[in-house]
Amino acid sequence: MRLDLRPVRLASREGLQMLKVSAGREQAAATGVQLLVPALLGAGIAGWLAATAYAAALQSILAFARHRRGIRFLGPADHVTLARAVLVGGVVTLVADRATVSVVFLALASVALVLDAVDGQVARRTRTVSPLGARFDMEVDAVLILALSVQVAASLGAWVLAIGLMRYAFAAAAHPPIPRLRPRSVLPPLRSASVPLLRSRTTVPLLRSRTTVPLLRSGAPVPLLRSGASTTWPRTSLPAPWLRSPLPVSLARKAVAALQGVVLVVAASGFLPPAAAIGLTAFALAALLWSFGRDLRWLWLHRPVPPIPAPDPIPRPAPSPARVPSSRP
Predict the structure, then answer these.
(1) What angle do helix axes 251-269 and 131-156 make, rounded to 10 degrees?
(2) CA 206: distance to chain centroid?
(3) CB of 243 closer than 8 Å to CB of 174
(4) What are 47-54's contacts with CB under 8 Å, separation 24+?
(5) Among 129, 195, 278, 326, which is most buried by a count of CB atoms within 10 Å?
């Protein structure tokens, strides 16, 4: 009796496509689980409000990003990040309720930090690395670090909030909420005016209708709509648009980011004496400042420099025709 050792084909590619669940349904299921977490934790009004706002904001941003990029299905790494988002929602609920640090709080935060290292490995193993997944993972990490810094700041001081707010300050500087407006003309009330002509020492009255006045040198007419019209430009320049440039991959940046979560969980646990917790948290903040300063220096040195326009050539007067000598004696 011979055994067939050939690999068995479980499903075709079309069958796997049918087994996929749309990302919208997955997000709806994750939202339902996130709203179930406060009930399981016995949260109060503040916890329910924080959990609802977190779930609505996170899922809305993810849905908008998917629609903008045309993504219908989430990858395996995105599923891990979605599970992390549910755990982070539990941490946010407990922090908003000002509950004491318990085993549940430490377990939720610790598992969320461990899964942070898992989703990247899954994305690389399955070759599903995408900008959307990286950005989704980054935002979930930022919310977790902010929630942990709020919890630790209650016992060590408000200076710990700098760890959680630094990433949002960087994003606000790179994407300020300043609309790009067009220049607007500020026109005074209609009135008659006059333009002096230097050569003839006379004036030409300008009525309310459209009038043109010839220039003395070039002779090109300039339309004048109303007397004394000026143009003002609103504030449309970004404070630092070069911060939007992509950064190179850095292991030091990843190590410093992972250090923040570990240090904040240890400081919130209460296992260390206050002096040791303050020293460890201050070291994490100093490392974060060094990492941001290093990235800012790289972005500044590699910022796009706009080209300098060439100066306009100065028009020179046409040479006068040469005089022909007369043939008369």
Answers:
(1) 40
(2) 51
(3) yes
(4) 47/93, 47/94, 47/96, 47/97, 48/93, 49/96, 50/92, 50/93, 50/95, 50/96, 51/89, 51/92, 51/93, 51/96, 54/88, 54/89, 54/92, 54/143
(5) 278
Hey, CA dihedral for 133, 135, 136, 142, is it positive or negative?
Answer: positive
**Given a cut of 80, is residue 37 above it in pLDDT?**
yes
With beta carbons less than 8 A apart as the criterion, state whether 41 and 104 touch. yes
Which structure tokens are listed for 33?
């689980």
Spell out the residues 6+ positions from residue 264 whose beta carbon is closer than 8 angstroms to its own: 145, 148, 149, 151, 152, 160, 163, 281, 284
Query: What's the maximum distance between 2 C-alpha atoms anywhere in the chain?
Result: 134
Residue bearing the bigger pLDDT, 305 or 196: 305
**Residues belonging to the chain:** 329
On the question of pLDDT at 123 being above 70, the answer is yes
Closest by Cα among 109, 68, 66, 67 to 87: 109
Note the Cα 181 to chain centre separation in Å.
Answer: 20
> In the 8-state DSSP scheme, what is residue 310?
P
C-alpha distances in Å from residue 152, one per residue of 20, 115, 260: 41, 22, 12
153 vs 63, more confident: 153
Instruction: Please give the model's pTM, rounded to 2 decimal places.
Output: 0.68
Nearest to 146 by CA among 133, 135, 157, 160: 160
- Which pair of tokens denotes residue 313? 């050539």
Percent above pLDDT 90 for the chain = 29
* Three-state DSSP class for residue 254: helix
Backbone dihedral angles phi then psi of residue 134, each to the nearest 5 degrees: -65, -40
